[in-house]
Amino acid sequence: MDSNTEVLLGWRAGLHGWDALVERYSRLVWSVPRSFRLSHTDAADVYQCTWLCLAEHLTRLRRPEHLGAWLVRTATRQSIAVVRARGREVSFDLWEPESALPAPEEVVLTNDRQRRLWAALMTLNERCQRLLRIAAHSPELSYAQVADALGIKVGSVGSTRTRCLADLRRKLGDLR
């Protein structure tokens, strides 16, 4: 597989590097707006805007080896902008048949579990939050891709994830 630098240089020279970049980072870019729990439509907008920003700034990238981190930062900024624009709207799919709706007690229990999980997650440091969001929304990513997105060493991804999960479990236990 070509390095980001080779792919970017190839794209600038008119070769087909863009497709390789999209294929390499597509799941990572998608994981960011989904980690913000955006609707599919809003997540698609963030995804598209992130790639558009890359196309606009491609010639100004100084460190192509950190492209994954750049894409995550850009998608994060785009996601935050959407969240701010939408406020705390909750969208309901009005076309869903009533039989598919969960029982009220299931909704209450699920909402309580999610509230406790998010409350515990938000008490973790930013590195752990980002790592766990990527792991939850894009489990198929390799350690190298996760390390690139977070700007950490590949060898520390597993141990960092283990520490973050242990910390999250402890904090969830404290919230009971």
UniProtKB/TrEMBL annotation:
Keywords: DNA-binding, Sigma factor, Transcription, Transcription regulation. The keyword Transcription regulation applies. Gene3D superfamilies: 1.10.1740.10, Winged helix-like DNA-binding domain superfamily/Winged helix DNA-binding domain. GO terms for molecular function: DNA binding; sigma factor activity. The keyword Chaperone does not apply. GO terms for biological process: DNA-templated transcription initiation. Pfam families: Sigma70_r2. Residues 21-88 form the RNA polymerase sigma-70 region domain. Belongs to the sigma-70 factor family. ECF subfamily. This is Sigma-70 family RNA polymerase sigma factor. It comes from Lentzea alba. The lineage of its organism: Bacteria, Bacillati, Actinomycetota, Actinomycetes, Pseudonocardiales.
